[in-house]
Amino acid sequence: MAELPQAVVSGILIGSVYALLAVGLALIWGVMDIVNFAHGNFLMVAMYATFFAWSFLSLDPLLGTFVAVVVLVALSLATFYVVIRPVLRGTVLSQMVVTFGLLLLLQGGAQMLFTPSARAVVHPWLDGARFVASGVVLGGPQLGAAAVAIIGLIGLWWLLNRTEVGLAIQAVAQDRKAAEVMGVQPDRIFALTWAISGVCVGLAGAMLMNFYAVDPAVGFQFGLIAFIVVALGGFGSLRGALLAGIAMGVTQDVVGLYLPAYGLAAIFVLYLLVFLIRPQGLLGAH
Amino acid sequence: MAVLLATFPFVVKDPFWQNVAVLVLIFATAATAWAVLGGFAGQISFGHSLFFSVGSYATAYVVIHPGLSPWVGMVGGALLAAIIGTIVGFPVFRLRSHYFSIATIAMQQVAFVLVTNTEQLGDASGLAIPLRSPSLANLQFSIRDKTDYYLVALAIFAISLFVVWFVLRGPVGYYLRAIRDDEGAAQTLGVRARRYKLYAMALSAAITAFAGGFYAMYALFVDPSVVLGVGFSILIALAAILGGAGSLWGPLLGAALLVVLQQFTRTMYSGAGTGLDFVIYGILVMLIGIGEPRGLAGLVGRLRGRRPA
């Protein structure tokens, strides 16, 4: 009976990717107090970028990762300058509304351009690298994705806590005006934050593409998961995001093992339960 | 506006446009309800299909099982939705609006999975409403001419609009706007933010459910993937935002634009049009967010104001 350990392991692997996806969202949320409702669709764009790099340019999906990251950084920066900057001084409502519009635009655009059919990368190089340990299978693509996610999270932690730029980002997150007085230009920090978020989503999407088919609807599902990871883990906490991501991956896979129809619903129930007890999330401060 | 709405079915007899008009009114009712929460209290819900479907299911259920009048189901559904809304709102309203938006999606997703796995509610295939003799009490009319359906939909919309106007013109309306603009400041001045947000939630949920009950009777079918789907929640929010969630007539304008645009793109481009309408909505919503947060209603007001006397 290796089913339960298998589900737990699979959950941990996919959960790490959830965490990487979620920190992209949490970073913008924490620094600018803006929720990017289109975040899940950014992931969809990253997946399509990887897919088309593979199918049109015959790039190995691993090399396609670079394409996805570049596309996503460009998309994130464009979003910041075109859509977000004009509403920075606007109401919370208008800030929520613009990214909601972006969600609709990306979703509709994908449906128009790429049709609703699902597309998958066939035989990625990582497929060959699978390990079996006491009955539990570690798929190459999943293992690779989790490894990249963990490395990405460590890199982000290092960037935020061990570099001057990272400290400037944290300063702006804590008190925008005070940081400005100290010579930090919030505008630049915001743009940088969006770019970093783009890198996270680009990596997550490209790695996911190695074992998950993309269609215009994936954005919604993963966007929702990212929101819930962020809300569950609490803000500004990378460890919280990792814990929450893994908790969600494991819950989804273990519940899905026994009650296949309820896998995804279980993570929403988990969220609502945590929410009732600790609304600020598992490791949230306020 | 009111005259235009009241005479519409007697002037326009084309069934296509009569159907469009009924759908516009149903959406307008739900969007008006959404705007109480989203536009006036500043709480953006992406889970309003939950309340809509409570109305739809309650209505279908009482018509099928005890064989009661659908009105009983609509009122019951509205009450049930208000209770659910209060229960959802109670923990969520301690926090800022982002959490609220996420919690509403989560609730709706859980409800979807539960309902589509409940045999009494027809699992994933939904509930078909049996035909009865046409009458107002049975809320079934001739399907050839939609005039009667239109008039009932109009009455429901008008009453909803009146109730919303009546509630928002008093102190509650001011409190809600104060909470939306600056919750901390409002609380300092003694406004019990959470309580008024809960009132707004209950009212919003009840009206949405009522509209959902009527929709079930109009479609004669409750399809969970439609009435309890994410898409429906988004459309309700969209209608209100497009039209202007902070104004009374905005949701109606938004619903009209939404339904007409949807019918237009679907007829013109059939399957391929499914993406096009979202692209157009997306661009419009972004423009509204950046340029005119008061939506179409604000735009109309602006144009009127600039017109030389």
Explained architecture:
- The complex is a heterodimer of chains A (286) and B (309).
- By secondary structure, chain A is mainly alpha-helical.
- In chain A, strands 1-2 form a two-stranded antiparallel sheet.
- Helix content of chain A is 73%, strand content 2%.
- Chain A is globular, with a radius of gyration of 19 Å.
- The longest helix of chain A has 30 residues, at 3-32.
- Chain A has helices at residues 3-32, 39-55, 61-84, 92-114, 140-162, 164-174, 176-181, 186-209, 218-233, 238-258, 263-277; strands spanning 131-133, 136-138.
- In chain A, a hairpin with a 2-residue loop joins strand 1 (131-133) and strand 2.
- Chain A is built from eleven helices and two strands; from the N terminus they run ααααββααααααα.
- A two-stranded antiparallel sheet of chain B has the order 1-2.
- With 309 residues, chain B is mainly alpha-helical.
- Chain B is globular, with a radius of gyration of 19 Å.
- The model of chain B has no long low-confidence stretch (mean pLDDT 82).
- Chain B is built from 14 helices and two strands.
- Chains A and B meet through helix 4, helix 9 and helix 11 of A and helix 5, helix 11 and helix 13 of B.
Q: Topology, please?
A:
The complex is a heterodimer of chains A (286) and B (309).
Chain A: H1 3-32, H2 39-55, H3 61-84, H4 92-114, E1 131-133, E2 136-138, H5 140-162, H6 164-174, H7 176-181, H8 186-209, H9 218-233, H10 238-258, H11 263-277
Antiparallel strand pairs in A: 1-2
Chain B: H1 2-11, H2 15-40, H3 48-64, H4 70-92, H5 97-115, E1 127-128, H6 147-169, H7 171-181, H8 183-188, H9 193-219, E2 221-222, H10 224-227, H11 230-243, H12 250-269, H13 273-291, H14 295-306
Antiparallel strand pairs in B: 1-2
